[in-house]
Design brief:
Blueprint: H1 11-33, E1 37-45, H2 50-62, H3 71-74, E2 78-84, H4 96-104, E3 118-126, E4 139-147, H5 150-154, H6 163-173, H7 181-188, H8 198-217, H9 256-278, E5 285-290, H10 292-298, H11 300-314, H12 323-329, E6 336-341, H13 352-372, E7 376-381, E8 388-395, E9 398-406, E10 413-416, H14 426-433, H15 467-475
Parallel strand pairs: 1-4, 1-5, 5-6, 6-7
Antiparallel strand pairs: 2-3, 3-4, 8-9, 9-10
Helix pairs in contact: 2-4, 7-8, 10-11, 11-13, 11-14
Amino acid sequence: MDKKTEAPVGLGDIADSITRQIEAIGDATSEALFEPVIRLGVTGLSRAGKTVFITSLVANLMNRGRMSGLLAASEGRIQTAFLQPQPDDTVPRFDFETHLAAMTGPTPHWPDSTRATSELRLSFRVQPSGILGGLRGPRTVHLDIVDYPGEWLLDLALLDLSYTEWAAQVLDRIADRPQAASYLGMVQGIDAAAPLDEMEAKRLAGGFAAYLTSARQDGYSDCTPGRFLLPGDLEGSPVLTFAPILQPGSTPRKSLWREMERRFEAYKSRVVKPFFRDHFAKIDRQIVLVDVLGAIHSGPAALEDLRRAMAEILTAFRPGANAFLSSIFLGRRVERILFAATKADHLHHSQHPRLTAITEALLREARDRADFAGAKTAAMSIAALRTTVEERMEHDGQMLDCVRGRLLDSGKTAAFYPGALPDDPARLLSPARKGAEAWLDADYEVMRFAPAVVSLKPGEGPPHIRLDKAAEFLFGDRL
């Protein structure tokens, strides 16, 4: 196995670090004395509804009629909330207005997913609480929402791996997945010790990217490197033209193996590290949206994969474990992390506690690490945009708790019973850990609902489930 080596520290690195420390001290002083800033990171795994969450959150913070769980709103201390230009001129603005129109217009539909980093600033005029609150005037608090793909966050785990380690781990993990059969066949037919053939490298990178796309569509979460799915302006560049292959007995210079190794290291240094340095290090509150119901529906392997992904994500919030992260955080720490199981409206409310319990069980191992590092974590079941209503129906002499909504494919309204989640999360997590191919005692179905037609009253945001409680956990203490 390759030994890890530390890159030498140059004068440029030292100067850059000092500059960041001065900026961090200046920002902290400015925030403490004048207008506090809450930097909320929002990310999600495999179609968890990131765009919908941000759009509904902002709309409900501007019109707080449905936000009784946010204490500053229920106590009437938020006088107003309004959008302002974001502080970072180099990051695209989150297209809030277009997304809200899609969700709440006369013919509502799901907005387009965001495929890169974006940002939005929402500012509050808030009356302070406490004994002295009445003696002081209202203050301005800024909420900077940073939206980024969950696949990019998972890339953090690559920083601790050599190419040899990463390739072996990936090939072992995907060995039994049908989505990987075509790519694994390609790997078996190459000579990694042969001189680099650029067309061969492109074919391998394309085959691995196709596998990642298929795996994500089927509910898997470990779809890294993240830029293979969202390449942007890096598409076709050498930094994205590598893939995991079998290590040969010898690895001569200019061989396919050596070039794959070099490009993997370039991906870490030129793609992964800049993202964490420029965006992630500014975050002090974080929500990770997780489609737990989708993973359960996809089967035990997808659920176990989700558990591992959640554990890997939380390593991003432990900068002491990684020298690179320690250098960019500069004493700053993500203080609160919420893992939110989305699409709670696909279940009757009687099953919401079970969904939350399963999410907490998935988090247990990873949460212990984060709590040890000082971050406050929580799990919650939410629906950023409620698309269904609840009803009870009789079927074969049994009363079932159902939900009714407009089906995405046909547009017709239908009632749906997804199956009962178990009271004990171990009934799902245990077979998932043991590598079971299917659930033995039940099938869990997932329907795709379209947004419902809504008529919003003045002062109301879009209907939701526990969005107000999520906001209270994430930043209610700062309002």
